[in-house]
Amino acid sequence: MSLTALVLFAVCLTATAENRNALNEIIFSGDFEFIDLTHPFDNQTIYWPGVQNFVFTRKIANLEPDGSWYAANEFAAGEHGGTHLDAPYHFYRQGLRAGELPLDSLIVPLIIVDISSRVNDDPNFVLYKIHLDYMLNAEQKCIIIFKFGWSKFYNDKQKYLGMTDNGKLNFPGLSEEIATWITTSYKKVVGIGVDVASVDPGSSQDYPVHKVASSAGLYNIENVNLSRDIPEYGCTAIVLPMKIRQGTGAPVRFVAICPKKH
């Protein structure tokens, strides 16, 4: 290797290291906080009726003869329960599956649309464009989460799902109009999410929002934990579903990196 090439190689290594350090210094400067938007998975996790609930199928927790400790669990659960991701394949045959989603669609800017004051705890509320006070600003890849104010009911399955005596569900959701508007007007949106059990209203029988979003290549995140307030914009979403290769969906660890308020 010539001296010039060696110098250039050293400069490139230095620049790369500086960039890495700069990113770390920004993220861990103390000016940002990491907010978990995920409900825990346990025997209280909300699942759609008829879906395999989360359950430990085998639990080991032993104090060994030598005094050491060993613990291990095995679990079973449906793909669609708790805080989870719906892959496009869930409602679109040609759509990507959970294990195929690219990382540059899973780590993106986060937009929160808080319409909880309009919902006012009404389980029959359906969001239409007329309910929004402003147009969305989605000029780069992003995910939009709609806050209905339903996370506070998560520990009450009856209330959260609006379960009736005849087994029907009733909770707020998005309209087909909203889904069509997002997928046709905002091509940079890669996913939509809600703090209820489905992007469609609980009373829906044909799931148009799922179908519109999936056919446009968007994923959904349902049962988002919005128990605490986070900024409506300025945060980064980290969406990390379990990488089930053929999955129609998967449990997800959903985190927001947000600037701290001073």
Which structural class best describes the helix and strand composition?
Answer: alpha/beta
- Shape descriptor reads globular
Distance between the termini: 52 Å
Helix content: 10-25%
Q: Which sequence of SSEs, written as H and E, runs from N to C? A: HEEEEEHEEHEHEHEEE
CATH class: Alpha Beta
Describe what is shown at a glance.
By secondary structure, this protein is an alpha/beta fold. It is 20% helix and 27% strand. It has a single domain, classed as Putative cyclase (Glucose Oxidase, domain 1, 3-Layer(bba) Sandwich).
Outline the structure in words.
This protein has 262 residues and is an alpha/beta fold. The protein has a single domain, classed as Putative cyclase (Glucose Oxidase, domain 1, 3-Layer(bba) Sandwich). Helix content is 20%, strand content 27%. The strands form three sheets. The chain has a seven-stranded mixed barrel with strand order 4-10-9-7-5-11-12. It has a two-stranded antiparallel sheet with strand order 2-3. A two-stranded parallel sheet has the order 6-8.
Strands, helices and their partners?
Blueprint: H1 3-27, E1 32-36, E2 55-63, E3 69-76, E4 84-86, E5 107-114, H2 116-119, E6 126-127, E7 142-147, H3 157-161, E8 173-174, H4 176-185, E9 189-194, H5 208-215, E10 219-222, E11 235-241, E12 249-259
Parallel strand pairs: 5-7, 6-8, 7-9, 9-10
Antiparallel strand pairs: 1-12, 2-3, 4-10, 4-12, 5-11, 11-12
